[in-house]
Amino acid sequence: MKNHKSVLYHPTAHQFQSAVFGFTDRSELPPVETDAEIRQSVLQDWKNDRDTQKLVKLAYVLEVGKIIVANRDMDDFQGQYICARGSRDYHEKSLKPWNLSRRQLAMVYRALSRDRDVILVSYESGGDLAATLAHELGHYINRRLGGLDRFELSLFKFPAEFSRVTENMRRVARFDEYFFQNKDEYYAETWSRFLCGQKNRALFRYLNRPLGRLRMKHPQKTRLILELAKAA
User: Fold this and answer.
1) How many CA atoms lie within 13 A of 149 on its CB side?
2) Measured between alpha carbons, how far is 88 from 151 in angstroms, rounded to an integer?
3) Which residues contact 74 (CB under 8 A, 6 or more apart)?
4) In the chain, helix, strand, coil percent, each to 5?
5) pLDDT tens-place string over residues 1-54
6) pTM higher than 0.85
7) Could you tell me the residue ranges of all domains in the chain?
8) How far apart are CA 68 and CA 120, in angstroms?
9) Residue 115: partners with Cβ closer than 8 Å, 6 or more residues away
């Protein structure tokens, strides 16, 4: 998923110094955080943020295989959902831009080999860690748990209107244009708003049909999703 709502910008030491050296004496410059320090700060926020940790617990109860906070930024992408049922070539192409460590790659491939899906979250998500995780969890609900059907997901060669976002759907959602590209992105973002406790009855009415499908297939998991949304 690309830029999700607001994104905290952390300049590198070189970028910061280049911007100010023409006007400020070097001795007067404040200390600049390195990428490693920023990463450690975000990882600490990840562990300490209650809303994020509730989503992490829900994701694992829903049987997501692994959630990893990426140790390097991937351009302007904030998160990505990787389905275990994809090909190895798909997995390799999806993972390569994230520049994961050997240890992280081992954990990812271990989960995928066990038919468990993976969620990656960039440390550059900054203050939007919970929203980014909830969006990727929305993809998991759409695809793995069956919140959307195969027509809506366009997994096969069906007419485009099945996966296209309608004008009525657009009207009730104040999303960036990125989330209107198809129903998978639209519903993933709708789940994100729902799980993070936002209030939008008109928008959330579109979750009635996916919730009906989930209740039929996964009643216990559906109950946990609703409980977290209610408590958010």
Assistant:
1) 6
2) 24
3) 80, 97, 98, 99, 122
4) 60, 5, 30
5) 766 543 333 444 444 334 333 444 444 545 545 566 767 787 788 888 899 999
6) no
7) 36-231
8) 5
9) 84, 85
